[in-house]
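User: Here's a structure from my thesis project, written as structure tokens. My advisor, Dr. K., wants to see whether a designed sequence matches the one we expressed. Can you design one independently, without my sequence as a hint?
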């Protein structure tokens, strides 16, 4: 069945966006920032959210080196005690280790938007370790990652798409790329200009998901990347203990 976006005339303002991408600023990626942004542009993306784990310095660098025609959105994949969240349009880092509610409040204070990545992944899903229920924050997020290219097996993405549809939340498709080969392998086509929070919210009312898969062999590089990054001193950022909490 043709997408509604295919019915638009040639002058329509369409955006091609990947809302979940990692660079070598992440503890589990070796993808150089320059290579990532140039791959995104070469593959036809117009917008790329760089969402490294618990930091935004890679996204800021990506914005500085992005070629014409590619808008970099400053983002972060935040590790909360309840599960991971995607934050975009940030001015500063959102610290890891808070509850999902506290994290969302921090993102909103900055005027940012919130998405839920790979919500039903058997290893990385929201509440997988904490037991938190995604339904408890469904009315506080802006989109659900209904298709994640790194999810193994189709049921987790199917569950995410159903969850989003039942709650009238936008469902997006994202690469979750950790290597240059994966950039833009999955993305979303939007009608409008998602370069601002208001623009992205408006554009998410008409999403055309473009799914694609990262190969097993590409994903297999991630454990090696973690080892190499750890040896470089770029391990995972840990949440600071609260006063009185044992370290």
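Assistant: Designed independently from the structure alone:
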């Amino acid at each position: 069945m043709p997408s509604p976006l295919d019915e638009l005339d040639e002058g329509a303002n369409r955006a091609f966006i990947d809302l979940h991408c990692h660079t070598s600023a992440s503890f589990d990626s070796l993808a150089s920032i320059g290579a990532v942004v140039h791959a995104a542009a070469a593959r036809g993306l117009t917008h790329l959210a760089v969402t490294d784990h618990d930091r935004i310095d890679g996204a800021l660098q990506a914005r500085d080196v992005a070629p014409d025609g590619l808008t970099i959105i400053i983002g972060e994949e935040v590790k909360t005690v309840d599960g991971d969240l995607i934050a975009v349009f940030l001015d500063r880092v959102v610290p890891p280790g808070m509850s999902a509610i506290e994290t969302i409040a921090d993102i909103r204070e900055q005027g940012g938007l919130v998405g839920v990545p790979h919500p039903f992944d058997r290893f990385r899903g929201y509440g997988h370790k904490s037991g938190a229920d995604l339904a408890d924050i469904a009315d506080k997020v802006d989109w659900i990652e209904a298709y994640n290219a790194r999810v193994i097996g189709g049921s987790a993405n199917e569950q995410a798409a159903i969850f989003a549809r039942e709650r009238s939340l936008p469902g997006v498709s994202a690469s979750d790329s950790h290597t240059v080969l994966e950039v833009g392998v999955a993305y979303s086509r939007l009608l409008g200009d998602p370069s601002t929070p208001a623009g992205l919210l408006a554009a998410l009312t008409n999403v055309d998901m473009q799914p694609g898969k990262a190969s097993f062999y590409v994903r297999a590089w991630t454990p090696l990347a973690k080892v190499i990054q750890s040896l470089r001193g770029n391990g995972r950022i840990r949440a600071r203990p609260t006063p009185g909490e044992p370290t």
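When you compare it with your expressed construct, this may help: The domain at 13-231 is CATH 3.20.20.140 (TIM Barrel).
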